[in-house]
Each structure stands twice: as structure tokens, then as C-alpha cells.
Amino acid sequence: MFLQGLFLFFILMGIIMIFSSKSWLMIWVGLELTMFSFIPLLGEKSQQVEGAMKYFLAQTMGSLMLIMSTPFLFMESAVFYFLMLALIFKVGAPPLHFWYIDIMYSLNWKQLWFLFTIQKIGPLLSLFYLLESKMNNLFMGFIILSMFTGSMGGLNQKYIKILLGYSSISHTGWALASMIFGYYMFILYFIMYSFILTSLMLIIYYLNLPKSIFHMEWWSLKDSLLFFMNLLSLGGMPPFLGFFMKWMVIESLYKADFYFMSMYFIFMALLTMFYYINLFIYTTMNNIIISKLFDKMKNKMLFKEVLIMTSLNFLPLLFFMFL
């Protein structure tokens, strides 16, 4: 327990270093500190060692790419592309995402939450610092590819961990797009995404929901509704919080005359919603036995916490009421 707390402290220190520094040397140190502190948390059980090793190798390759960019410091464009590729690799965005989905099977829900949220902060912030000075078509290509891969990868996906993995890739594309419009929009989007994902992961963890969608028909109706309210929010279904954060990005793209990108983002959001709604219909229609939600909860207070976090997804309704 003490060691876990120590590693979490070092992860926090690494993130603070990245937040507070504009020096690429200190940013690199912060990235490595978060990586090496996260790896021991991945290897808690023997069956998780393989996932920890894959994560280590992937992050090491990204770090090597960062180091390899130093000989090209006198070539501004070469450094820019090397750094961008290295950070895209570290964050697990397409086309350098092969390692990201592969490690999902061996991680538990707590580790997945860290991977989807905390471990993305460093590389995404570093990308923002890089793109402050220069925006180009390659970066736009990464955005388009991330959203396409995340949306298409989730189609016909039966394992919840893999489904959330592809959802994370899709939201990486949305987060990258929010960077175009400044620091505060990026931070706001990432906070809202992390909030919705935390609510969803709490439901999965405390209700001990199955790993496969094939077993969803054994869920109670209340379990299914609570789970899918958060999943639909993550997909951008109005009037949930996820709709507000995606609408914010699409509106900014439209006002900046990115008309094609706006239409593309809407189409990808609708595609994601299509298979989320299909899953919702599948689980609710196959529900025969409706059990009480409290039976699966270890503590009734946990139910209240999850319910409160889920209800906060309706906050955008208040926003639109006062427009």
C-alpha cells in the first residue's frame, strides 16, 4: 500500500513537471517519471506482467524517438515531426496504436482508468506545447485517423474493455481537435471526458459487471440503464454532458470555417452512437429478470456516489435552459 502511494506521488510529480515547464528536457523527464511510476502498478499480478512489459516497450520506443530528435535541433521542421510522432506513439493514437489495444486484456479496471486518463495527460499536454508554435496538415491527419479508428474499431466489438479502448482512441482525436482552439478548451474537454469515464468505470467496478457483452442479458434493468446512461454520454448523446463537450468542439470548428471537419466529426459521433444504442437495445430487450441494484453493491453509499455522478451528466440541460 505504501509503495502504491509512493508511485502515485511520482506520477503526480511528473504531471506537475509537464504542466509547469516549457523546457523539452524537463517535459521529457516528466514523461519518463510518469511512465516508470505507472509500470509497477501494472504488474500487481503475474498475469498482468505481459501487459506491463508491452506498455514498457511501447513507451520506451516513444522515448527513443524523442531522444533521436535532438541531433536535428538545427532543422526546425525535422524536430517538429519527430517530436509529434513520438508523442502520438506515447498517447496511443493511430496509426501508432497497435500496442494500446493489445494491453487491454491483461489490465484491471483501475489500471485501465489510469491508462485512459492520467497517463494521457503528459503526452497530450506535450503535444499542445508543440503545436502552439506550428499547426500543420499532418496533425489534422492524426485527428481524422484517430476518430475513424476509434469509431470503426468499436463496431461489433463484444468485450467491454476493448470497446472502451477504442472509445478512448476516438476521444483522443476529439481532444487533439480541441487543442486547435486553445489551452482552456483542451483542458475543459479533457476534464469532462475524464469525469464521464470515471463515472462509467465506477459503475463497472463496483457492480462487478461482466467483461463480455454476451453476458449482458444477466444484468438487471437498473444496472443496464445506469451503465448505458454513462456510455451514451461518452458517445455524445444529448442531453448528456458528453454531448455538450462534443458540440463545443464541432461549433468551434464550424466557426473557424472547418466545414468538412465539422461534418466529419458529426458523422463519426453518429456512428459511435449507432453501436452504443444497438448495445443498449440488445441488453434491455434481453433482460428477463429485474434484480435490485442494491444487492450487487458492497456499500449503499457507493450507490449514492455513482448515482450522483451519473445525474451530473444532465448538467447541459441547465446550460441550454439559460441560453
Automatic annotation (TrEMBL):
CC per GO annotation: mitochondrial inner membrane
Superkingdom of the source species: Eukaryota
Molecular function terms from GO: NADH dehydrogenase (ubiquinone) activity
Alphabetized UniProt keyword annotations: Electron transport, Membrane, Mitochondrion, Mitochondrion inner membrane, NAD, Respiratory chain, Translocase, Transmembrane, Transmembrane helix, Transport, Ubiquinone
Annotated ranges, domain NADH:quinone oxidoreductase/Mrp antiporter transmembrane: 21-272
GO biological process: mitochondrial electron transport, NADH to ubiquinone
Protein family: Belongs to the complex I subunit 2 family.
Name of the protein: NADH-ubiquinone oxidoreductase chain 2
The species this protein was found in: Allobathynella sp. JHS-2017
Gene symbol of the encoding locus: nad2
